[in-house]
Amino acid sequence: MRAPIGDFDDARPAPDCLDLLTGPVAAAVRAWTGPVPADRLVYVDTDPAIADTAVFVEHYGPALLDESANCVVVAGRRGEMTTLAACLVKSATRVDVNGVVRKHLGARKASFAPMDTATGETGMEYGGITPIGLPADWPLLVDAAVVDTEWVLVGSGRRRGKLIVPGKAFAQLPGAVVLEGLGVPVG
């Protein structure tokens, strides 16, 4: 199989690669339903040593910068209550944590969750967190620009490997809320 984007040597339908995914991600792919069939989720093997975005796109194709997204875990606090959520934005942008995220979560303060919280609560590796397989009760805030992208490269739950997913599929994930302006230009 050829990957729909990027220059990858090893691309396969994600349902054929469940053993290469973390438990939560494999379970989500196994249980996948909705208008985008599971076999349209593509797993590509990648070198974990070059997982960071700038080096990754240099190696696998510069066009991937506009076709990739980052998933980060945030913590919104109001009084004693903390709400964990995930945010999915295009890689060339940053999450508007103190604006859009804070307001959407109804939090007084919002920040990126500590690494051990993000990995412990998701069951995924830091640097590979993906919106597929997140805890079902979490809000998943998705920038509209991600949904409007034909194919999107995201983490696979591990630093090794990525998933290529039709952008519109992110709107069908549990807890997904599509928001304009969630991702803001860097700089």
From TrEMBL:
One of its GO terms (molecular function) is aminoacyl-tRNA ligase activity. The keyword Flavoprotein does not apply. The keyword Repeat does not apply. Residues 57-170 form the YbaK/aminoacyl-tRNA synthetase-associated domain. It holds the Pfam family tRNA_edit. Keywords: Aminoacyl-tRNA synthetase, Ligase. InterPro entries: YbaK/aa-tRNA-synt-asso_dom_sf, YbaK/aa-tRNA-synth-assoc-dom. This is Prolyl-tRNA synthetase. It comes from Streptomyces vietnamensis.
